[in-house]
């Protein structure tokens, strides 16, 4: 049965149609999250209407930024890039409009399930997935399932406190770029790609920026390893594609922070599905909801 999979972010929405033995990438489209997030619904309904003559969409699987009440699917909270999203009920809206089922999950938790089902986490029973981007998100997988904790939001490591600030306020990609622009305004360091390009040219300022970032990330990941000791840690976000300049230094710094037996028991790798992890994860959760 064709399922429309959506990954809702603050600036754009990724889309894919998927069924058993069937997959079709759809064009990304702009997100209305920053003006009025509930208006996204109208774009989704129009997309389904456009698809239906050929594909007959029978369900919607949503990966979304923000906190999601896993019991109800209602948005429980969100960051400043979304407006008026708290309390929005995707399941009810789609049921009332089209009488079709939906699943809704936080984007990082969905990405974790995507990697576990189809990507870098396949074959593992325990994993911790973190994404490094505008902020830092996390999700814990135990016994092949999302571990949610008492409030339903276990894994929110972006809020983990350090001496001077929370984890994501010190080591996210957005913070790296902001720091580069503040400290070196005369240099062309306006995004992660430009910073790593400068790193390739042995720019000492770029080297220090990335070294500081990877030190903090290594410390946060080391804490996760000491507490959870998962079989694998999977790092996502566009910056994770920089293996030799980003992932490898993190791994070496972690080695110095944890006992050797703990370090040796956990594999650390980048996501395999890239920016489609959330789409695959949402589909996986939809399938599980219909078993």
Structure, explained:
With 291 residues, the protein is an alpha/beta fold. The protein is 42% helix and 22% strand. The chain is built from eleven helices and twelve strands. The chain has helices at 33-36, 40-55, 90-98, 107-118, 168-171, 173-183, 192-200, 204-228, 243-255, 260-265, 277-289, and strands spanning 3-8, 12-19, 22-30, 59-64, 67-68, 75-77, 102-106, 127-132, 136-142, 145-146, 232-236, 267-270. The strands form three sheets. It has a five-stranded mixed sheet, sandwiched between helices. A hairpin with a 3-residue loop joins strand 8 and strand 9. Helix 4 (107-118) crosses helix 11 (277-289) and helix 7 crosses helix 8 (204-228). The radius of gyration is 19 Å and the shape is globular. It starts with a strand and ends with a helix. The model has no long low-confidence stretch (mean pLDDT 93).
Which characteristics define this entry?
alpha/beta, 291 residues, five-stranded mixed sheet, globular, 11 helices, ATPase_NBD, 42% helix
Q: How would you characterize the largest beta sheet? A: 5 strands, mixed
Helix content: 40-55%
Order of helices and strands: EEEHHEEEHEHEEEHHHHEHHEH
Number of strands: 12
The percent range for strand residues is: 15-25%
What does the average pLDDT come to?
93
Using the CA coordinates, give the radius of gyration: 19 Å
The tally of helices reads: 11
Uncertain parts: none
Strand order of the largest sheet: 3-2-1-4-7
End-to-end separation in angstroms reads 13 Å
Which word captures the global form? globular
Sheet/helix structural class: alpha/beta
Organism: Anaerococcus kampingae
Protein name: ROK family protein
Family: Belongs to the ROK (NagC/XylR) family.
């Amino acid at each position: 049965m064709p399922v429309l999979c959506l990954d809702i972010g603050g600036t754009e929405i990724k889309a894919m149609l998927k069924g058993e033995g069937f997959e079709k990438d759809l064009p990304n489209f702009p997100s209305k999250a920053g003006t009025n997030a509930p208006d996204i619904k109208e774009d989704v309904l129009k997309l389904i209407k456009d698809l239906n003559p050929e594909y007959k969409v029978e369900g919607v699987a949503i990966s979304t930024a923000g906190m999601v009440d896993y019991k109800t699917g209602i948005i429980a909270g969100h960051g400043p890039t979304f407006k008026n999203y708290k309390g929005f009920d995707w399941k009810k809206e789609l049921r009332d409009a089209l009488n079709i089922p939906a699943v809704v999950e936080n984007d990082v938790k969905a990405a974790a399930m995507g990697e576990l089902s189809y990507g870098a986490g396949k074959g593992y029973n325990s994993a911790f997935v973190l994404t490094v981007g505008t902020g830092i998100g996390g999700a814990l997988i135990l016994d092949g399932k999302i571990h949610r904790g008492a409030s339903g939001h276990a894994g929110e490591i972006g809020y983990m406190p350090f001496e001077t600030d929370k984890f994501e306020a010190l080591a996210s990609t957005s913070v790296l770029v902001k720091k580069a622009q503040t400290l070196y305004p005369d240099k062309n360091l306006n995004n992660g790609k430009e910073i790593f390009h400068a790193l390739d040219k042995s720019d000492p300022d770029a080297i220090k920026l990335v070294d500081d970032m990877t030190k903090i990330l290594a410390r946060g990941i080391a804490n996760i390893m000491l507490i959870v000791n998962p079989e694998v840690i999977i790092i996502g976000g566009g910056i994770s594609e920089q293996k030799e300049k980003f992932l490898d230094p993190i791994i070496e710094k972690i080695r110095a922070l944890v006992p050797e037996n703990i370090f040796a028991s956990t594999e650390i790798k980048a996501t395999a599905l890239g920016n489609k992890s959330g789409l695959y994860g949402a589909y996986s959760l939809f399938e599980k909801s219909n078993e």
